[in-house]
Design goal:
Helix content: over 70%
Radius of gyration: 16 Å
Distance between the termini: 24 Å
Number of strands: 0
Order of helices and strands: HHHH
Number of domains: 1
Length: about 110
């Protein structure tokens, strides 16, 4: 249960970056550009609040490792499935390395 805030922060962080990407895509349409940028900033604020609250019950090094790595993997998936960005075997290997790293950092002493 203590990880709910952290995973909500991750979702908000992914939505922040998606909003920023939409803002960049719609660079020639000022209303859409600034609208998507504003949406991204709102999710960025939500992300910051949720992450900060999650630190009350999760150690910083564990929370940060999970937060940043799951965000990267989430953005990798969103960029592939939604934005049709190119995926290479090296990037897929990187996702596995990130996942392994999070598991290693998150484990208690062996």
């Amino acid at each position: 249960m203590k990880y709910v805030l952290l995973y909500a922060a991750i979702i908000a962080n992914i939505l922040t970056n998606v909003g920023f990407n939409f803002s960049a895509i719609h660079d020639k349409e000022p209303l859409k550009k600034w609208g998507f940028l504003a949406i991204g900033l709102v999710f960025g604020l939500i992300n910051s609040v949720l992450f900060t609250e999650s630190l009350k019950s999760i150690p910083l090094q564990v929370a940060s490792a999970i937060f940043f790595s799951v965000t990267i993997v989430g953005l990798f998936l969103v960029s592939y499935f939604y934005f049709n960005e190119h995926v290479t075997p090296m990037r897929i290997a990187g996702v596995f390395v990130i996942t392994l790293g999070v598991i290693m950092v998150s484990l208690e002493r062996i």
